[in-house]
Amino acid sequence: MTTVPECHTNNEERKSHHPEHVKKNLVTRLNRIEGQIRGIKGMVEKDVYCDDIITQLSATQSALNSVAKVLFEGHLKGCVKDRLQNGDEEILDELVVTIQKLMKK
Which residue of 5, 64, 73, 99 could cross-link 78, Cys pair, CB 3.0 to 4.6 Å? Predict the structure, then answer.
């Protein structure tokens, strides 16, 4: 059973409340990515061979894409579903923009 975030929207503030285990997973992934970025910076400072740096950049981009996939799945199964069930079809326009952002990669 997949646990999805509970979403709250009003005119002033939009929030998603992810279950604690999902939030912990995302934070762990982001901490790892942060470490990868620091490592890449160090590689540049040490004049490491370009191809090796590019390989690390590619791995980091893949890790960021994985975080985006987790968030997007939760958004679809939680926020989007809830808002559609409540008759809020504006979420579809927002979803199109979100998908376009993801496809730029």
Answer: 5
